[in-house]
Each structure stands twice: as C-alpha cells, then as structure tokens.
Amino acid sequence: MQRIYSTFAAAMLALLPGMAQAQAFGDQIDSIFAASTGWFVNLIFADVFGVPWIVSWLVIAAVVFTVYFGFIQFRAFRHSIELVRGDYSDPNDAGEVSHFQALATALSGTVGLGNIAGVAVAVSIGGAGATFWMILAGLLGMATKFTECTLGVKYRNEYADGTVSGGPMYYIKKGFAERGLPLGGFMAVMFSIFCVLGALGGGNMFQANQAASQVQAVVGVPAWVTGLALSVIVFIVIVGGIKSIARVTEKVVPFMGIGYVLVALLIILMNANMILWAFGEIFRGAFTDSGIVGGIVGAIIQGFRRAAFSNEAGIGSAAIAHSAVRTKEPVTEGFVSLLEPFIDTVVICTMTSLVIIITQQLLIDAESGRYILNEAGRIATASGATGGVPITSAAFGSVFGWAPYALALAVVLFAFSTMITWSYYGLKAWTYMFGEGKNKELVFKLIFCVFVFIGAVSSLGAVLDFSDAALFAMGVVNIIALYFLMPIVKREMNNYLTRLRSGEIKKYN
Amino acid sequence: MSDKFVVGYDGSVSARRALEFAVERAKAQGGCIVLAHVLEWSPYSFLTPKELEERHKRRREEMTRAEEQINSSVAEELKSAGVPVEVVIRYGSIADLLGKIAAEVGAVQIFVGREGQSALEARIFGSVAGALVQTSPVPCTIVP
Asked: Is the dihedral of CA B56, A92, A101, A252 positive or negative?
C-alpha cells in the first residue's frame, strides 16, 4: 500500500510543476483526440431529421418500453414506494442491501451537474417549454430504467464469498446465451469499453471540470487546487479504501439534494402568484413558437435531450448499482429503479427549471411576448449569465444572496459523489474485460484519479465530446440488448404481479 | 415449560451485570436465558457502490464473528454453569428488536444494562433502555 501512495504522489507531483505543462499536455491530448475520434463523436451526435439521433434513440426506446410493459411506471408507482419503504422486505434479511440503499446509491450517480447546469442550458436554449418535454421524457424513461435494472438483478454473478457483480455486460452475455442469440459476448465487451471511457469522461473529467470552474468563479480558488484536492480525495477513497470520507459524502449528498429541492420550493412559494404564469409559460412554450431558435421542435429537442442525459435511462449504468440488492424477485428492483428518473428528472430537474422561469431569468419582449435572443442564438438572461451553473446560480442568487455559495458547495459534492459512483461503474466494466484482481483494479483506479486532475485543469473540449459520445454509445449497445431481452422482463413482471394480486406475495408489516 | 429471560447482550460491562442478574433469577426459578445480540442496522443508511457489492459477504462475516464471540465467551460459560441458554443474533434497531425477540420466544421478562457500549450516542439519541421501556411487550428489568 505504501508503494502505491508514493507512486501516486510522484505522478501527481510530476503533473504539478508548471500548470502550463499540464495544460499543454492536456491540449495536446485534446488535439490528438479531435483528429482521431471526431468521426465517432459526429456519428453519435449526428442529426437525423434535425434531431440528434441518439436522443431519438433513447426516447423511442422509452416509448417502446412504456407501451410494451403497459405503462408500468404508473401502474406500479405505489408498489415501488412500498418496496422502498421496506413493506415487502423479509425482516430476516435485515443487514443485507435494502431497496432503499440500492436506489440511493444509484441516485447519487445520476443526480449531479446535469440537474443544476444541464437544465439551465436546456431552458436557455429551448425556453420554458423545454421543461414540459423534459418531464414527459423523464416519465417515459422510467420504463427503460425498469427494464434494465430488472435484468441487472436477474443476471448478476453471485460469488462464493458473497459478493455480487452485475450490470449490462452480465445480462447481455448471459441473457443472449439463454435466448440462443449470437454476439452476446462481443456486445458485452463493447459495452464495457464504452463504459470505461464514459466513466473517465462524463463520470469524471466533466464533473471535475465543472466543479473546479464553479469554485473558481464563486470563491476564487484556482482550478488546479480544486482539481488536485478532488483527485487526492478520490484517491484516498477508492484506492485507500478510507470509507469514512465516502460515507460522509454519501450521507451529505442526499441531504444536499433534499435541501436543493426545498430551497427551490421556497423560492417558488415566495413567488406563489407567479406559479400559474410559470406553468402557462411552460405550456405556451411547449406547443407554440415562443421565439427560440427552432421553434417548438427546438423546445422538444432541448427537453428530451436534457431528460435523456440527466437520468441515464437506457445508458445501463444504474443496472450496475441496483444489482447488489438482496431480493428473491429481480423485478422488485426494477420497480424501485423506476423511481430514479422520477426523482432525478420529474422532481429535481423541474425544480431548477421552475426557479429559473419564476425568477424571470429568461428575458421576454414585453410587446411580442417572445424571447429576446442574444447573438449566440440563446435566450438573453436577466443577469447576463451564460452557460449552465452561472444561470442557475444567478436565479437562486436573485432571491437569496448566499445561494451561489451553497450552490458551489452542492456542485462540488454532487460532482464528487458522481465520480465515486462512476469510478465503480468503470471498474466493474474494467474487471469484466480484464478479470478481477488487486493489481488490475489498481491500474484503473490510478488512471481514474489522474484523470480527475486533468479534467479539472484543462478545457479538453474534444476529449469531453469523445467521452460523452462513449457514454451514449453505452446506450446504443444496451438498448439493442434490452429489445432482445424484454420478453424475459415481461415474463418476470407478469408472474410477479399475478402473485402480488393473488395475495401470495404479502407485506411483512 | 421453563420461563425464558431475554438478556440484551453486547459484551459491555453493564450488559454483563444485567446478564449476571438475570442468571440469578433464572437459576432461582429454573428458567432459561435467551442471549439477544443486536447488530445496529438501518435499511435507510447510505452505502457506497463498493459497500453494496460486499454487503452480503460482510454480513456473513459479522454474524459469524458475533456468534463465535458470544458462544466462546458467555454461552459456554452459562452452559457449564448449568443454565440453559439460547443465542439470537439479529440486525436492526436494538430496543425494537429486543421487544420482538421477547414476543417471538415467549419470554416473561427482558433484562438490559442501563448503558450500552456507546454512552455518548445514548445521550444524543435516547438510550436503549429508555426506548425499550416504552415499547416492550413484557416486563423489563433495567440493571444499573
């Protein structure tokens, strides 16, 4: 262990002495990426009929699953809450992973910058109307999550020592084999490759980058300091195995999330007379041309895009966290997981959006009632802020002066918890490909820590584009697999629901 | 059938005193001791993904360790002293579970020490003894 620490320290020290060097190194990587991976990024984010096809891909999948499972997200919503509450948990299983714990951990991976920054970007391009489409896509995404997490539990590996490993790579391989379909092994490896890349990018560098720039903007701490600090803390947690830090964040983050929603609610209630107007704006923007670039279609694209990117339904990542739950019925974890897009998108993202709308950050021309656009084609904001976090920060700050500081802290903590969760997702994909073992795992963890730092200090546009593309490539592989495996989920679901209705499955208390 | 006495046992000094007190009663009345060891656990706590993965393994280890400790320390000792003894190990909230265990085994009384291992926690969140008195289905003896 001592040697690992010193190796890591040496690596970080080598990066430190001239930030210019690190940045130059980062820029060099960036240009290499731009040249060699541009085609891949363009392919994933290419427009088909004016919409990025990956967005359509995720939303169509969500519609298919919603219809195929008979609107399960609405039918089973109450039962899902009862499951999380533990009404159906065997008291003899106390001490095992509960439904609540699996849900909370998976949520800590999805609730993050997307909910704060992403939403601001979406409404500043798509207007208030984007919120409507975002909520709709969030509701549909619940069915996708249900499908993938049921499979995650059903096809997980349970080892003799009592540990479990699950996720898309396992259900793709085993599920395809069970149904006699070819290419399962190949797709599982493809998924794993994209998952490792996505973990290093969207689950790591992007988070570090946004957290560091927000801290710099609000408190004035240079990005490299935040980057170094984050990198060291992540190292201590995932390599050093110091659980206390992780445990503290895992405890603080949910409260941050709840606090965020409460403050947002407070702002909304303080402007109670504006609530009807705000919803009017949302509906008006959703179905009429409110003056944004692209009109209604522009609003739809932004809303769908935000929902799909925020709750990760269809990406397959959550199935990895959910598969650890202790249950005899895989489908129960599917029910629990469908609450995830609901909490992430329908509740938290909507709060951000309502606060931005209700504090009138988006400038509207008084005469025509249309949005005033700036030269970049985005809606001009009252504060003059552009970009994600600054707009949200200005919206909260317009009511509470202290809010931007609290928000900066929230951004750092959300970013940190997302990194910890994604380091695990990446690690699982890594060990799926290379096998389990201390040294093999260590290699990935060290790479992960170094990338935290690189992500924080450099702009890395192309690298981030590539890792975003990798994240969504996970969704391509995963959803193809889900289409083939959904009959299995349906069988499980019908079987369970029949027994639930007949009273064979009972509440324990 | 002999009377059963549930003793909340966590290895602390005060639990030991409660046990000795209960043993005297059991001997006098020809009763049996149920050693109840509760591992504090909440299904609503937050765990990292790594902890989720290892939870089942850890639980097994914790159970084995607890069993070994209780068997090797007190259970054997009581048996050799001629007092019939049962060991129950559970996860959950201590006060809540002691009451449940008592109801399940049909105990006539519960014995606990006044202070568990963590006096500070008890001060902040209320003591086990205090909570038990409120909820216990059978008479309770709190041994100072």
From this structure: negative
**CB within 8 A of A296, min separation 6: which ones?**
A129, A286, A287, A288, A289
Residues 6+ apart with CB under 8 A from A266: none
pLDDT, tens digit, 9 for 90 and up, residues A181-234:
888 899 999 999 999 998 988 888 888 888 888 888 888 888 888 889 999 989
Residue that has been written with the tokens 């919803």 in this structure: A279
pLDDT tens-digit readout, A17-38: 555 566 676 677 777 777 777 8
Per-residue pLDDT tens for A272-315? 899 999 999 999 988 888 778 777 888 888 888 888 878 889 99
First to last CA, chain B: 30
Q: Say how many domains are in chain B.
A: 1
* Contact check, Cβ <8 Å, A101/B56: no
**ipTM value:** 0.81
Cβ distance of B39 and A95 shorter than 8 Å? yes
Kindly determine whether residue B50 and residue A424, on different chains, have CB atoms separated by under 8 Å.
yes
Q: CATH no. for residue A439?
A: 1.20.1740
Q: Which residues of B touch A162 (CB under 8 A)?
A: 54, 56-60
Sequence-distant (≥ 6) Cβ neighbours of residue A56 within 8 angstroms: A48
Q: Is residue B123 part of a domain?
A: no
Interval A343-381: pLDDT, tens: 999 999 999 999 999 998 888 888 887 888 887 778 888
Q: Which residues of B touch A246 (CB under 8 A)?
A: 48, 50
pLDDT in tens, A376-415: 778 888 877 777 788 898 999 998 889 888 888 888 888 8
Q: Chain centroid to CA B85: how far?
A: 13
pLDDT means over runs of 10, chain B (144 residues) = 81 83 85 86 81 86 86 80 85 86 87 68 64 84 84
**Closest residue of chain A to B43, computed from CA coordinates:** A98
Q: Which domain holds residue A179?
A: 2-502
Q: Is residue A508 part of a domain?
A: no
Is residue A375 one of the residues assigned to a domain? yes
Contacts of B62 in chain A (CB under 8 A): 95
Best mutation target, B47, B52, B54, B89, to test chain A (most A CBs within 10 A): B52
Q: What's the structural domain count of chain A? A: 1
Instruction: Find the helix packing angle between A129-154 and A119-126, rounded to 10°.
Output: 140
Name residue A464's amino acid.
L
Q: Does A417 lie at the interface with B, CB-CB under 8 angstroms?
A: no
Strands A157-158, B109-113: pairing is unpaired
Look up the domain containing B76 and give its range: 1-9+19-39+47-88
A406 in reach of chain B (CB within 8 A): no
Residues of B within an 8 Å Cβ radius of A: 39, 41, 43-60, 62-63, 90-92
In a domain, B2, yes or no: yes
Inter-chain contact A105–B55, Cβ cutoff 8 Å?
no
Within a domain: residue A509? no
Of the candidates B47, B56, B92, the beta carbon closest to that of A326 is on B56
> Residue A169 pLDDT > 60, yes or no?
yes
Chain B residues closer than 8 Å to A337 by CB:
none
Chain A to chain B Cβ contacts (< 8 Å): 89
Nearest to B48 among A86, A250, A320 (CB): A250
Whole-angstrom distance, CA of residue A492 vs CA of residue A69: 11
- Return the pLDDT at A277: 92
